[in-house]
Model the fold of this input.
Amino acid sequence: MKNRRLPDKVRVVVHGPEVIDSGLAISILKLLERFGSVSAVLGGTMGRLAVIDADLEDIISINARKTPSQSVHDLQASSDVIVLLNQAKNRQTGLAFGSRVAANARITRPLIQIDSGGILLPNWLAMILDLRRSWRRIYA
Done:
């Protein structure tokens, strides 16, 4: 097996005000910093005021006005892995949203969707914490 390097350029597309207002976005971003270089952009327009209200403009870029799929597509060149962070109303709409973004973005990099809508947060946190071990096995 080839010796591949561990992904260290993590790019995050944050979608919607709910994930920002709940504090989940900043929590996930801090967790992801354990993996390496993390940068985040807002995908869509509805979360713009939430980013400003939470004083996160230095952490989540709101400069580019792009759809989530455009943001995912554009981040591929500078990433090892892309995380799509959202808080849907329920599991079904979250899965539909992620599928649509992935299809429209024409992804060529690994895309991980983290969506707390209808899913218990501790399950996601455990998955993220275990992700580093999984990446080491895959890229070893």
In short: The longest strand covers residues 9-14.
